[in-house]
Amino acid sequence: xxxxxxxxxxxxxxxxxxxxxxxxxxxxxxxxxxxxxxxxxxxxxxxxxxxxxxxxxxxxxxxxxxxxxxxxxxxxxxxxxxxxxxxxxxxxxxxxxxxxxxxxxxxxxxxxxxxxxxxxxxxxxxxxxxxxxxxxxxxxxxxxxxxxxxxxxxxxxxxxxxxxxxxxxxxxxxxxxxxxxxxxxxxxxxxxxxxxxxxxxxxxxxxxxxxxxxxxxxxxxxxxxxxxxxxxxxxxxxxxxxxxxxxxxxxxxxxxxxxxxxxxxxxxxxxxxxxxxxxxxxxxxxxxxxxxxxxxxxxxxxxxxxxxxxxxxxxxxxxxxxxxxxxxxxxxxxxxxxxxxxxxxxxxxxxxxxxxxxxxxxxxxxxxxxxxxxxxxxxxxxxxxxxxxxxxxxxxxxxxxxxxxxxxxxxxxxxxxxxxxxxxxxxxxx
Length: 430
Ligand SMILES: [Cu+2]
Description:
By secondary structure, the chain is an alpha+beta fold.
């Protein structure tokens, strides 16, 4: 069959449910490359999941099928430091990325180091990691593989096959360590500290958003909220949904939002149903130089990954927006900005109308509360970062305006209507 002869290094051949296509995931443009690590200090890698639709659960796996701990330096450009007392093993979310943590040994065990044995990278996610052969144990060869494990993104989610993406050969690195006994954990720890410090400096940029916000004149907030209002009254928030407009049609996607008052009650008239993206309808209108609180609610039985343009945002692990909703997993920081966050899938089927089902208790989603600073005027979008989903309608317009004036989208809507009218007239005339 076509593709049969292609090099493939799967540990599992997956399910041929994608038009019987053969799947290849390349690394740096190569299929199953050999990576020689020659430095005694190992290497620092940036791994970005640029596959539009697939989630990659990655590990380095030794010759004895054991995950090799690797040090996590940064997630989505934000440096990572283990919290004091953080459990050395377990599953955690760090800046929106699900990880299995592992004890840091072999020279990694500097203060604040965080090591992982598995990283769940959804589309658009990137990490910086530090790899060395130090944690190999007796009986393991210095040759390991970068493995993508079989991934299931939820009861109705996608089922991606496992495969080995690269061979990583540490033979020369081990030899370099052996021939330079002084190059041990001390120098590695020192360089690691430098790297982390450097990245922490770079990640300080999001703090500028807060500085800009605090120094810029804020427009007066609206006193009440009705559809069409730009901005939110003080204490109000939004609940932003991702899911399927028809719960039985799992390949059609949509978003919606509603406004909650200061007590967490839904503002009457603000409710929307999940709908396929429409550029000029149902968009969120925010005021420039303000920050909004959103609870992002995934009402589907499938993971999604929330992403917004023009601004980064802050995940709030302990913020419940007055309704008992809170991020159920630990994160390392609520003060560093991220540009995307994974959304756990709902427990249970929410129903054909997933929002109604959520409100009636038919299912239990895991909302993620975020703070979103709006610094830049203009129209942009928020969407799921899985290509199949945002192309399939899981996207919502966001307009940021300087005051409560009607957003440009109103005008765009008029233009579209006029063009449509003109075409209709031409068609009628033709
Ligand atoms: Cu999605």
